[in-house]
Amino acid sequence: MILINLLPHREAARKRKREAFFAALAGSAVAGGIIAGAVYLWYAAQISNQQGKNLVLQTENKKLDAQIKDIANLQTEIAALRARQQAVEDLQADRNMPVHLLNELVIQLPDGVFLTSVRQENQLVFVTGTAQSNERVSELLRNLAYKSPWLTKPELVEITAGSVALTPRDQRRVANFTMRVRLLRASELQKAAATASAASAASAAAAASSPIVRASAPAKT
Asked: Whole-model pTM?
């Protein structure tokens, strides 16, 4: 006996395919949503973690800024204390400066030169006097420039010709002069001495390390 299926099987197959497609599509959408939610939650956790780290860093930076400010204030106070200490040391060392000044003027003053006034302004000393000739003034300048450890950079401000009456009938021509010279502090003198000592040591070391070349005379044939 032959059975003939007269039901619309093609429509049923297409319906089953559509249902399977929509079911797969819904499953894919659900899976995509789950994956997207998981990724979103992971990124949110990472962002929250990084924000927590940033908050910790900001807090530590604020603490460091406060410490840096305190250190800057301490450095300012230390610099002020050092400046005061240096000022006190300079005052203590400068107490003997007038003694050194007068002593050096007496030592370096050549014969035939007479001082009429000595005036000091800070480190500059203005000297006014009378000399028998211009050569005596030049000699005084050389002495102050090269022979005095406490006086440096002498400069002739003014020199004029004058005369001095030795007797009512005897007058002698003289040179009236004004010069300025710089008086060194004790600290400056110590620095200059240390620099000179270091330079001499360096030159001695260079001379000791330089090779000695000996020239031999050619042999006679």
From this structure: 0.51
